[in-house]
Amino acid sequence: MPFFFSFSLSLSLPPSPHSLSSPSPFLPPQVRELEGEFEGEQRKSSESIKAVRKYERRVKELTYQSEEDRKNLNRLQDLVDKLQLKVKAYKRSSEEAVSDRVRGGGTLGGGERPGGREGGREGRGEAEGEGIGRDRRPGQE
């Protein structure tokens, strides 16, 4: 092996102008000022990146929430449609029952009730709920 490869150079180099860990006293004031501005811009850039990430997360959350709301709205609309169909069916059967009753000679008007009893309060006594101390609300008989 050759002998000339075994020595080492020990030169001390001045700090690189690219090392931004701390301002060096060997650099002119303009360079230190530029380094300070550069560090400030780096801080602003990292804060901007954090803000962008925060807003991206918020957009994802709102997008997910709006999709869930849309799904719920569709489910509710389906339920409303089904209920409307049921209401129409009940109304139709009620109208058919009334028309059958009218065609059959019975009427729902006058003193007769659908249950076969006479209307009004005069025929009822305590046995049918007009006892003392009964709580009456508007719209109840």
Automatic annotation (TrEMBL):
Superkingdom classification of source: Eukaryota
Residue ranges, annotated region (Disordered): 93-141
Coiled coil, from the record: 52-93
Biased composition (Basic and acidic residues): 93-103, 114-141
PANTHER family in alphabetical order: CINGULIN-LIKE PROTEIN 1-RELATED, MYOSIN-6-LIKE
UniProt entry keywords in alphabetical sequence: Coiled coil, Cytoplasm, Motor protein, Myosin
Subcellular location: Cytoplasm
Transmembrane segments: none
Compositional bias per record (Gly residues), positions renumbered to this chain: 104-113
Protein name per its UniProtKB record: Myosin tail domain-containing protein
